Each structure stands twice: as C-alpha cells, then as structure tokens.
Predict the structure.
Amino acid sequence: MSIALAGQPNCGKSTIFNTIAGYKAITSNFPGTTVKYTETKTLINGTTCLCIDLPGTYSLTSGDPAELEARRHLLSGEVDVIINVVDASLLCRSLELTLQLLELEAPMVLCLNMMDEAQRKGINIDAQKLSEILGIPVIPSIATTGKGLKELFNEVMKVWEEKKKRKPLKFSKDIEEIINELVSILLPKRLVEEKIPSRFLALKLLENDQFFIHEINQFKNIFHQVKPLQERLEQAHGVPSDEVISSERHALAMNLFEQVSKVIHPPKKDIRIAIDQWVMHKFFGYLILVGVFYGFFNFIFGIGKFVEEPMMGVFDQWIGWLEGFFGKGTLSLFLSKGVLQGIAGGIAIVLPYLVPFLIGLSFLEDLGYLPRVAFLMDVFMHRIGLHGKSIIPFILGYGCSVPAVMATRILEFPQHRFIVSILATMIPCAARITIIFALVAFFISPNAALAIFALNILVVAISGKILSTFYPEPGSLGLILEIPAYQLPSVLNTLKKSWYRIREFIVIAWPILILGSALLALMEYFGVERYVNWFFSPLTHLLGLPVSVGTTLIFGLLRKELSMIMLTQALGTTQVLTVMTKTQVMVFTVFVTFYIPCLATIAALWREIGRKGALLAILFTLSVAILIALVTRIFFGIFPLW
Amino acid sequence: MTTLPQVHENNKAKVIDIQGGQRMRQRLGEMGIHPGDIVTILRYGALRGPILIEIHGSQVALGRGIASKILVEEVE
C-alpha cells in the first residue's frame, strides 16, 4: 500500500517522514524545502508500505511546479491513504487545505502536528470533535519528539483496511446546486476518469482552474456549459467565481475552527517576537545579518585552520616517507603519492571546512533565520530584477548548486526560474567555499577570502541585472512569503542533517577525488598532462597562471574540490606559495569560483531549464569567470597589495 | 477605506477587497487573506521593502506592490 504525506509548507511532513525512513528528506524551518517528492519503503505493523513525502502545498489550485507535482501525485490514483499533516498552531488556515483534500474523497487521516506550539499560543483543540465533523480520524502529535506518530500510523492502517470513501463537507445550498448541475453534465460524458472524483473536477472548473479548464477544452460543448454556471455564481455573489468558492471554503474553515478550538489563555509572552523586533528591524536587521554571516565565516575558518595546519604537516611527512620508500621517479611513487594526496585532500583540506559549514547551515535553516533574510533582502533582489523568494535558491546554493537549481521550482515563472538557476550556480557551493578557505584564507588572509565572497555577490547581482533585461519576467506578483516562527533546532536533528550532507561528500565526492588524484599522477608519469596543459595554455597565459594548473581545471568539472586538490599535486607541493604568487592564488580561486558548474549541476540544469538553458549557463559562467579573473589579475597588477 | 500600506505599524485593518487578478486572489487566499479578514500590520521593511503582517496567527511578508492592491478599513 502507499501513503502520501500532504500538507501546507513547513508543517512537519518531512520530519514525520524522516522518523519512519531514517534521515532521507532534508527538513528545515523554511516554507518550500521539499520541492520534489521523496519516497521510502517501510514496514508498518507487518505491512510493507510505500511512504511518499510530498512538497508542501497551500492549496490544491494550480500554482508553482512544486505544488503541481504534489497535486499530480494525489490525483494519480496511486495513493491509498493520505496523511494530511497540519500545523495545529495555524489550524484555521490549514483547514482550508484539509477541506480541499477531502474533496478528493480518498481515505485520509488528519495529523494534528506541532501541538506544543499550539499550546504555547494558548489554543486548545478538541481533536475528537474535529474528527466527528470531518468524518476522518484526527491524531494529535509532536513530530520533533515522535509523540503521537505510532498512533498515527496505527490509524492509517485501520483506515486502509476499511477502504471507506470519505465525504467532503457541503457548501451553501445555492453553490451545491450549481456543483450538482455541473456534475450531472460531466458524469454521462465519461469525462471523469475514475481516479478524479466528479465533484472535485466540477469544483475546479467552477474555480476556473487553468489546468483543468485546459484539460476539458477539447470537449467544446462541456466547456461552453461551464461558463454560464460560473456566471450564475458570479451574479449571485457579486464576486468572481473562484472567489465565491474560496470564500466559501474559508468560511467553512473558520466556522470549523471556532467549533473545535478554544483560546484558553492569551499567547504566552513570546521572546521570539521581541527577537524579531531586532532581527527584522529596518536598520539593525541588516547589521545583524552582516554580523551573523561574519560570525559564521569566522566559525568555519577558525575550526578549519585549526585542523588543516597540523594535518597537512602529517601528510607532508608521509609523502616524504613515500619518496624514501619507493625512490624518486618510479611509477609506484607517482601512484601512491597520487592516492595519498587524494585521501589527504579529503581529510585535511575539504572536511575541516565542510563539516563546520554544513553544521552551521543546518542550524540557521532549522532556526528559521533564512525567511527573515528573504524579508530583508527582498528590496535588493528587486533592484536586480528578481524578487525576494529567489534568495532561497541562492542561500541553498552556498550548500550545493544541485538543490539550489531544484529549489527554483518554488518560483512561478519559467523566465524567473531560468535566471535564478543560472545565478544560483555562480554562488560558491560548499566545495568552492572550501577552496576559498583553504587557498585564500589559509595562504593569504581571511580578509582576502571575505573580499572574494563580496566580489561574488556583486558579480551575481550585476549578472542578474543583465540576464533580467534579456529575459524580463511577465507581471510578477511580488513577494508573498510566510515567515514561520523560530524553532530551537534540536542537536540531534542538526547533526543528522549535517551528516546526511557530509556523507554525500564521503561516499561520492571523496572516491572521485582519490581516483582523480591517482589519474593525474599517472598522466604526469606518462607525460600526458603536458598536452592538456598545452591545450589550456592560452587561457592560463591570459590569466597569468602557471601552465601546470591547466589539468586541474578539467578535473574541477567533475567535482569542484578536485581543482584544489589537483592543484597541490600539479604544482608538486602543498606549500602553494612557494610556486605561486599571491596574485596567482587569487586569480585561480576567482576563476574556479565562477567557471562552468560541475557535472552534477549541469545535469540538474538540463532537467530544470532544458538543454539550451544548460548550454547558456555554461557559456555565461565561463565568460564571467574569464572576465572577472582577468579583472582580478589587472587589479593586483595595478595595486600590488602584497 | 484605504490601502494596506497606508495603515500604521501595530494597527489592525479589515480586508475589504483584493484588487488583483485570479492568481493574486488565490495566492493571498492560500495565506488565509480573504475579504472580511482582520490583519495586523507588524512592520514595514526598509526602503519600501515588504510589509510584515499577522493573519490568523501566522506571519506573512507581502511585497509593497501586492499590499497596495489590498483595500482595507482600519479597525478601532
């Protein structure tokens, strides 16, 4: 059997999913973290269940691609039981989706999640009464502590065994009449596939839902019968037909909310509101924003440097031993050195910066700080022709470009998704951040690394301005973003989530690093790397880099970390400054930060914005990288700061 | 009657009408904002940035453009 978790964004679907799946879906305190569904097979009371974590949807009306994905899945007929997860502290608004889910007439269980939060707000909910009115089981829970989840899944199994269809709640009499009229038109035409309930389709048509209107467009006579019914609704209520239906649902939800909930005491004086007085303040908000990121930067650098220095010393010593053991110039020396450098690169260079970065990012995500950043940055995003929601893919881009590109699904317009996905790949991902830290901050100075981050933001902003003039977006609505309450992240969840991302480096990237490093050693031994470097020499000459870095740029396409690890090998030393000037280190890092996205990202771009889009992204980032690296070279030529 | 951005911080207002297309009504409706609802203006962002409001217990940030299309009536 299969179970789908459906609910509004940020209500804890992924948290519930993770408790039964182990950590598989990224959770954060940010509406819209899940943009594609994750599924897992699990055993519940002896039955194998396929459990699907759907993207959060505020409603079942056509919206952005992430929402359509959820609706498509619910209508596919492959879902046996729906678990409607609801944030109990936002019950009134959430019930509107619940009413729409009931219109699907499928077996359903309501999970009243975040009961602790509701209590803090002083809301007491009568789950029994709610269950009686809705005609479905209602289970209170606190997913973060696992409370109520066992009961939830027991109830799911019971509902599945009963296989009873559910009845949606009725609207006002005059509206029901019109719905019934449309149903009687739809039914005999066999238009309604068995999976889509006729009442649901009738409602969507009356709501003027573009997706379904388009679907029935081919049946001209039906299409012509829908319009007069819409008009009758409009005349009777004096507002557009979609508003008639949505107001009706809203009224039902409000009424339901009043019947089942009681405000027993005013919300406890919430320190979180006082915090927002500062965090979202017109002036101090930005000061805090800068402070948070500066603190984050120093946190990563402090830990990274503390670990990198002694570890590199150890590995340098081992490489010295290898030379003594195998003798200079032998194949076994080249090969073992290559492998050892790959291993060392992972342990001594990448992980020391990656681990604190990912832990810090998880913490900020779970805390709920990022939507506040979107609020503060909205006005600046507008200046570059985007809007506040685009900050979400950008921030995710600092983790990894692949989820960043995928997160563009929360944007409504293709033009918008196109621009933001290209820009998001230019944001330094965790791999490139380690390069900036391990090369620039470590060998030059932390301020130089900060300058690269600042330069990056500037270049992304200018690129955004340029791209948005070429691809203007049609009548964007502007920002409508829920700002969720802060949540104190649990240590366990932060660690699990960081581990989920670190593991990706260890099992996928690291082996590639070691293999790549060994491959480069072999190329060096057989003298092949000379040809590659020769091929790249026009570029390396232009940028004033040592010719031997040419190969590292090719490897960087596989994994960005490779560029750096290869660098130490291509140069033949971990003491980079003995063979490269500080200017060269800067130019190299700037180039690597911007140039062509890695293979995994190109694949993601291909999926999201098509082949042409991916190709354009490659050309665009390559030109930007060459231009900015050249500017960097010229800048330090004129102002020799070291 | 006035538009949402005319209401002062910490004041409440009742939504009278949403003067936008179907998509805007839908998006706002999903956030729980319908004609007849009461919203509290929590704060204004800097430099004509978004407006933060409270509606049915949740906080929502609205761009100035959208907010100026929401007709409201100040209450008390």
